[in-house]
């Protein structure tokens, strides 16, 4: 029996007669093949990716497993339609927290049509994509202290996440890695230290989110096979510190051949996200304070003003 | 006595009554303060950069030393004008080869005026900036075998370098690190192995260009102080393998405060340049073949086609 996913945070949603993805109870995720060519592009990507001998095995685990296509009843009641069948990434996670982060300061690809470029550029400039190199495009964080008020999940609407500032992004990344999300946000607002011990479990350590992102980064510094436009990094974790946090890449409707060039747009954004997460990990990724931060502090917190700039 | 520089490869040139930079015979370079606000921006950058305690000492050597401003007779005959006085980067190099490489897939900054953004975007799309994350914006390579025909220097006009393809960029980087530039280009065209031993001296080794670029990259992964738009990496080397090759950053008329965010646009382009140079260094930066390259070879050189993309 297929149903709409409980924990989808971005993209078209299967509700009120809308076309959207479905899940089954065996851990599979059914994404309708979009008609505008994006579906066939994403299908082509999945087919080539897992059979490409140039993709190292340790990198494949960052991508949802792919099981082919299947014709099933579409969620909008329009009848049978072809769906991509892949791994349901939140399956098996207890009360999952999910952040969908679209990577790249530019979501459009060279040689796209002008109206598509204009549409994407506008959104990149209106969101944090241009300035931070990424934007939050979906979010739900489990918060047991607010079970009554929020049903346990702190969610933000598409409109809300699109309006995020750099400070909102920092708050979100702290909240995502907090044992007490409401308090984390309040503490941040008060200038208090965030929940370092818990953040260290979620982001830090050899299997934490930061280590996974650094592994991806090392691949992006070398690989010239694929360029990923408008793709997202998903950060996933279950409730409690014992469940391992996961990093996954999703949304491959705009993947192009790299032609011997690295994906500098994705890599730049990924490095920026890594830098933001290192900050939440109090003391930085290597456990030492950031040199520039401590110097600024020694300097009375005084920054340098580029007068005339 | 001030005169026009012999080895300037990009930017306005002091000739035929034009305003341009000058050099003296003691190794100083005089850059006229531009009236349109760029001059004062560049001056503000130099003033803040060298006194900023957050900039590590080993990073300062990548920037031209700065000696202040001085009013000298402008090259265009317009009379006394204020000039930035800095280190002449080619001073002391015997028959210098110079490549001026503008870093970043985007040369415009957020909050720039629309007409400036449009002008820069157009150029970024017409050159390799958009696709490679950088573009060659000036070039001279010493070539003793062609002393008679070219006066010893292989130069390309502004128009020529703006028309460079990815393959031209590869050829240029090979030629820059070749003991025999003309042959290097011919060999490349024939699909022959380039001049690996010499390239290893120029690009490789602990003091080579690649090591210097990697040091810069490590800083850009951390630093959130400055964002460099439309700045260039200069690759410099004297004639012969014994003179150490140098990497310098220049052109700071569009430097902005980082506000706690890394310069992902510059970093992405820098990583792309590093990847290109690693390729010229036969066998890759670490002396091992690139994994994806060798796998592709084992696979009969067969790439993957993203059909439908």
UniProtKB/TrEMBL annotation, chains A, B:
Top-level taxon of the source organism: Eukaryota
One GO biological process term: inositol phosphate biosynthetic process
Catalytic reaction(s) noted: 1D-myo-inositol 1,3,4,6-tetrakisphosphate + ATP = 1D-myo-inositol 1,3,4,5,6-pentakisphosphate + ADP + H(+); 1D-myo-inositol 1,4,5-trisphosphate + 2 ATP = 1D-myo-inositol 1,3,4,5,6-pentakisphosphate + 2 ADP + 2 H(+)
Keywords annotated in UniProt: ATP-binding, Kinase, Nucleotide-binding, Transferase
A Pfam family the protein falls into: IPK
Catalytic EC class: transferase
Similarity annotation: Belongs to the inositol phosphokinase (IPK) family.
Protein name (Swiss-Prot/TrEMBL): Inositol polyphosphate multikinase
Lineage: Eukaryota, Viridiplantae, Streptophyta, Embryophyta, Tracheophyta
